[in-house]
């Protein structure tokens, strides 16, 4: 057989390569399509898994709390009394006198346990809102400092690290700090100063006095400021949510186009005017950061349990003890009887639904703000 020349051999190799190229291309395309398909199904499964997890949580809590839902209904949300044990009440006649039987024994009526979540819902909302009032101005100021003022490597980096480090501290550590530092500070410094400054002003007397009614006679009594109360719990919550709001707000402000700021400065805007423009441009993301901080404060358990006083009551004064939904679950769930356990799980269900509604409302507001800005 006559051997091929060099040119003929080169042509043969080129023809073989041209014939093999489509098969290699088809194999590579098949592998790419397979990878895209697997990634598509994995992403869809992850999204559905999160939804199924939320649905499963709702179903489990609803099933466990069903005895309380059937027994109390919507009255569970409006009743402020939380009494685990039966209450023995002397029977009285129409004139208010105690009724006795033929043997001279006092007739006693037994009042069943009462479970109402109004007081803990009130404590959760008020403590979270007060925490936001304390934390949001500091968080936005710190975010502006890190983005607009501080040198990136000399100051901004270390300060941002320490702010984010606050989020990694366990809530138990915050609670211990609150007991030994914040509670005495509230009792010995903040409370007396507030009492001397605002106590004689009629507009603020509700902070330091309560009205007590006994036998139809009302009297005013001064509130004992001992450091355990709503304001102390809200302060601990504010310290805990401050790094979360600050970190998210910093990232949101960094995402504002630099051209927006430079254009405002070129038009003669002051530093504050350009910062206000920056905050306005990023208001949707900043609002999301605030809502995330609110959700964190509403669900916090151990730190607030250790300093808020854990008393089921609806009180106007921030210096009085209170209770949140999370602190109620932490203090009573371990030793709860069946009816009490169902009521506690009812509280947990209310907390979950409330968090969902807040996030849905926040999402709708953020989307609405974004769409209105894009339309302009």
What do you see in this structure?
- 70% of the residues lie in helices and 6% in strands.
- With 376 residues, it is mainly alpha-helical.
- A two-stranded antiparallel sheet has the order 1-4. It has a two-stranded antiparallel sheet with strand order 2-3. Strands 5-6 form a two-stranded antiparallel ribbon.
- Strand 5 and strand 6 form a beta hairpin.
- Helix 6 runs antiparallel to helix 9.
- The radius of gyration is 32 Å and the shape is globular.
- It starts with 5 loop residues before the first helix and ends with a helix.
Observed structural traits:
376 residues; mainly alpha; two-stranded antiparallel sheet; two-stranded antiparallel ribbon; 12 helices; 6% strand; globular
Please state how the strands of the largest beta sheet are arranged side by side: 1-4
Shape, per Cα inertia axes? globular
Mean model confidence by pLDDT: 83
Determine the strand fraction and express it as a percent band.
5-15%
End-to-end Cα distance? 81 Å
Number of helices: 12
Helix percentage:
55-70%
Question: Based on DSSP secondary structure assignment, what is the total number of beta strands?
Answer: 6
Q: SSE string, helix = H, strand = E?
A: HHEEEEHHHEEHHHHHHH
Low-confidence stretches: 369-376
Q: Major β-sheet, in short?
A: 2 strands, antiparallel
Given the helix and strand composition, which structural class is it? mainly alpha
Question: Radius of gyration, Cα only, in angstroms?
Answer: 32 Å
């Amino acid at each position: 057989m006559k051997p091929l020349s060099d040119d003929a051999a080169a042509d043969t190799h080129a023809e073989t390569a041209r014939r093999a190229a489509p098969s290699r291309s088809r194999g590579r395309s098949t592998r790419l399509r397979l990878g895209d398909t697997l990634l598509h199904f994995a992403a869809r499964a992850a999204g559905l898994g999160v939804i199924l997890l939320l649905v499963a949580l709702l179903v489990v809590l609803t099933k466990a709390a069903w005895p309380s839902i059937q027994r109390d209904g919507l009255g569970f949300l409006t009743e402020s009394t939380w009494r685990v044990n039966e209450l023995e009440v002397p029977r009285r006649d129409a004139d208010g006198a105690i009724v006795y039987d033929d043997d001279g024994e006092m007739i006693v009526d037994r009042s069943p346990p009462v479970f109402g979540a109004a007081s803990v819902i009130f404590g959760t909302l008020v403590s979270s809102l007060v925490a936001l009032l304390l934390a949001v101005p500091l968080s936005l100021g710190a975010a502006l400092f890190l983005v607009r003022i501080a040198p990136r490597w000399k100051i901004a980096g270390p300060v941002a690290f320490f702010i984010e480090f606050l989020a990694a501290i366990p809530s138990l550590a915050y609670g211990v700090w609150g007991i030994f530092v914040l509670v005495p500070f509230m009792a010995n410094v903040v409370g007396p100063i507030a009492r001397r400054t605002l106590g004689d002003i009629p507009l603020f007397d509700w902070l330091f006095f309560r009205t007590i009614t006994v036998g139809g006679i009302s009297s005013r009594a001064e509130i004992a400021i001992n450091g355990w109360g709503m304001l102390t719990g809200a302060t601990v919550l504010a310290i805990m949510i401050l790094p979360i709001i600050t970190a998210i707000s910093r990232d949101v402000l960094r995402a504002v186009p630099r051209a927006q700021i430079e254009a405002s400065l070129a038009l003669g805007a002051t530093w504050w005017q350009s910062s206000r423009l920056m905050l306005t441009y990023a208001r949707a993301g900043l609002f999301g950061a605030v809502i995330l901080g609110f959700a964190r404060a509403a669900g916090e358990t151990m730190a607030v349990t250790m300093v808020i006083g854990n008393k089921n009551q609806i009180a106007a004064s921030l210096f009085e003890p209170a209770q949140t939904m999370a602190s109620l679950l932490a203090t009573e769930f371990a030793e709860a009887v069946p009816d009490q356990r169902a009521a506690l799980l009812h509280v947990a269900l209310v907390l979950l639904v409330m968090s969902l509604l807040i996030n849905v409302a926040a999402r709708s507001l953020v989307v609405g703000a974004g769409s209105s800005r894009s339309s302009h």
